[in-house]
From TrEMBL:
It is found in: Cell membrane. Its main location: membrane. SUPFAM superfamilies: Multidrug resistance efflux transporter EmrE (SSF103481). It comes from Actinoplanes couchii. Keywords: Cell membrane, Membrane, Transmembrane, Transmembrane helix, Transport. This is QacE family quaternary ammonium compound efflux SMR transporter.
């Protein structure tokens, strides 16, 4: 159960990170609300997962999922470029996250 919550929290990390960029310095109420709600839920899920998972592993998985999804989301929206080198590096990051799960 902790792994499922952790994965969901990682997805919410990408949501709040993307929403943060859209707040324009917290001047736009819609994205600001999405940011705050996703941030609170993401942190709560991470805290829950850390009750049973090693802190380092949980944090690395959470950050890895959030980072990869944030880059993909911004690339899909045309705000960032996804070059072959960046895609390979993201694939390496995904591999490392999977590796942490396997050895845990």
């Amino acid at each position: 159960m902790a792994w499922i919550v952790l994965i969901g929290s990682g997805v919410l990390e990408a949501v709040w990170a993307t929403a943060l960029g859209e707040t324009k310095g917290f001047k736009r109420p819609g994205p600001t609300t999405v940011f705050v709600v996703a941030l609170v839920l993401s942190m709560a899920g991470l805290a829950y997962a850390m009750q049973t998972l090693p802190t380092g592993t949980a944090y690395a998985v959470w950050v890895g999922i959030g980072a990869v999804l944030t880059v993909v989301a911004t690339a899909v929206r045309g705000q960032d470029r996804l070059t072959p080198v960046r895609a390979a590096l993201l694939a390496g990051l995904i591999g490392c996250v999977i590796g942490l799960k396997v050895v845990s």
